[in-house]
Amino acid sequence: MTATPLQLTEVALTLPSAAGPVDILRGVSLTVETGERVSVVGPSGSGKSSLISVAAGLERPTAGTVRLFGEDLGGLNEDGRARLRRGRVSLVFQSFHLLPNMTAEENVAAPMEIAGVDDATRLARDWLDRVGLGPRLRHYPHQLSGGEQQRVALARALAVRPQLLFADEPTGNLDAENAVLVADMMFALVAEVKAALVLVTHDPALAARADRTVTMAGGRAV
User: Fold this and answer.
1) What pLDDT score does 191 carry?
2) In three state form, how does the secondary structure of the chain look?
3) CATH number where 111 lies
């Protein structure tokens, strides 16, 4: 039986500030099942991006439990969390995060090489074809438009065939036409690789494409 991709139980996150401790997340509980697509919405400052950081093991919660594929992240150090994510968890961000000194092909191939996937270069080309960028595989990020860079980022994230994809405002930096194009590709490719999806977005139309929506307000899931 496949372990549940994500379980958050009463997760809290408190961070220091000049004015004193700030409660970013307050007792958030969330379960995402295999293949499920969940959107997370709410106003700026409601804790949406922090929720992804904690859920992906990029940041430790102040309290509560985070389980990825049944494993408690609280019992793992940074290397252990990275090993658990490798090949199973991918992330896509608003600002693309492509490596500027690598071509599109190299950006997509790199995570597969780290995960020990055979024939990473050929697979990278296949994935760039899927997102309509086959002719641009030798281009560097600065030679690509914002929409093209996000499609490279999407190919990079899904080429390892993860079980769970976190997408934080993946269309936030794109114009309307490219936003629709990237969203269509993301949902199609997530379905193809049978990944669960946790999608943070300000776009109600994009959020509505998920199986269910979680609304954040004041650090709580309401």
Assistant:
1) 96
2) CCCCCEEEEEEEEEECCCCCCEEEEEEEEEEECCCCEEEEECCCCCCHHHHHHHHCCCCCCCEEEEEECCEEHHHCCHHHHHHHHCCCEEEEECCCCCCCCCCHHHHHHHHHHHCCCCCHHHHHHHHHHHCCCHHHCCCCHHHCCHHHHHHHHHHHHHHCCCCEEEEECCCCCCCHHHHHHHHHHHHHHHHHHCCEEEEECCCHHHHCCCCEEEEEECCEEC
3) 3.40.50.300
